[in-house]
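Researcher: Let's continue the batch. This sequence belongs to Bacterial membrane protein YfhO, and it's 556 residues. Same format as the previous ones, please.
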Amino acid sequence: MISKIKSIINRYPNLFSLLLFVLLSFLLVLPYLHGPAYQHMPGWDGRFHISRVAESYLNLKAGHITQINPSIMTKTFGSFGYPQNIFYPIFVMLPEAFLQLIIGNAYGAYLVFVGLIFFLTFASMYVCTLNLSSNHYTALLSSILYGLGHFTLTINLFYRSFGGSFAFIFIPIAFYGIYQIAIADYRKWWILSLGVTGLIFSDLPDASVSLLLLLLSFLVTFTESESIQTKAKRFLRLVYAGILTIGLTAFFLFPLIQNLLFVKNIAVTKLMLSKTAYPLINLFITDKLASYSLGISGLILVVCIAIYWQKFKVPYKYFSVMLIISILMASTVFPWTPFDKYLSFIQFVGRFLYFANFLAALLGASAITELVHGMQNKKIVISLFCVIGILAGTSLNFNIKHSQVNNSVYETNWRDFQKSTLNNNVYDYLPSKSVGLKDKLLKHDINVMNPKKQIKQLKWSTGYNVIHYQIKAQYAYEKLILPNIYYPGFATYVNGTKVDGGYTKQNLITTPIKKGINQIDVRYIKTPVQLFSIWLSVLSWIGLLIFNLLSLKRKK
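Model: Same format as before. Here are the structure tokens for Bacterial membrane protein YfhO:
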């Protein structure tokens, strides 16, 4: 029986690996399936990200699949028309909305979604490493090191930062793309575009840091002896990849840029990067179960890489240097103070650990494959890392459960977890000058905004990309202030007629009204920039599909 199993594994290594990934993903979320739900305190990443998908779910539940990507939030995030999805794309989170619709519970859907993210992280790393090394063992080991690493577990299970979680999936794809352009088959340049597109849709600050390190990785091309013509072709394909990425992401990036230029200064927290750096030792050895750290396992991988470094091929030697650079840039060793003013959009330097985490797994697996002799010993190594990773994830769960205050979570039942997803107090994309108005905005009361005017609000309600008010006015007014913030695309209608009322210095929407009953509708209408960028992205995606179909046809 055992010999038959071994025979099947040897014959179908990819299938075995995928089944192992399914098992590991299930074991990581298994401890959370038993008992109550644990929700993050308001203001934490986990609370914010799970709230992002709530509006899409509510629209799906109402049977409106075309409303799965609202531009403004009218049922969640305060229900005052906050443009969450314009500043932070929801696309990679949409499967969670469908899961919630199928499962019927937000916490159950969340756990299945986390399991799916772990599986895709394992699979992405496996495919990347297999294509780079042509070695099934190295690919399997790198996947386990990557998916069960301290940093990966921290982001996925403790911070519950879905933006970062998806970055784990797309970094291997983007790296494989830049590798192909730099020193392999540059005709696969479009893979880089797909990877970077995924990163941008996951989390823009994470993508910015990863993109910087990917561009530095491209310099590995100069370690290969090639003609100037070949180098020029490689550089040209890098440009192609950049142009295609802009096209693929235009329907998010262009409206984002439009709104950033209009708002000028959003309320998102800006930290001094030098204050967010970690002592170098803390990036490996920490007294916390969850932290921005590579952990002891990361330290072991770095040691293995150092031992085997001399025997690495030149490209891997270069990537080893990139690994050291990534680690140092997350530490206090790097002089961040001069950059505090100019790179504040990064928010914190721990983002460099995403790339370091990937390179440590890739290079560490390659080194261990050569350092450990005998298939039996190699299997023991994989088994050990699997057991250690699962135990680490389980320990993290127990720590969260028994030390809720220290972990900024609270215990709730699965039903109330769903209710809590509708409440969120993070409004990073309000104009800075409008932050002080938040409490008034949340009241949805025109009387509060206009205390000296003789008006009475009769009704308030919301719909898809629209907010409705009904008021009764004793007099006509030229400038009635509404509890809504103006962004490009907002339009006001009074009794069915579009009006141009403008907005205050704090970006509050204003409108003229007549004496008597007034029906006021604040709508979001796609801007010309949005419409253009949507068509540009549609054509880019179609072009990419046609390009690949033609490439496949030529190969045949």
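Researcher: Any comment?
Model: Residues 228-263 form the longest helix (36 residues).
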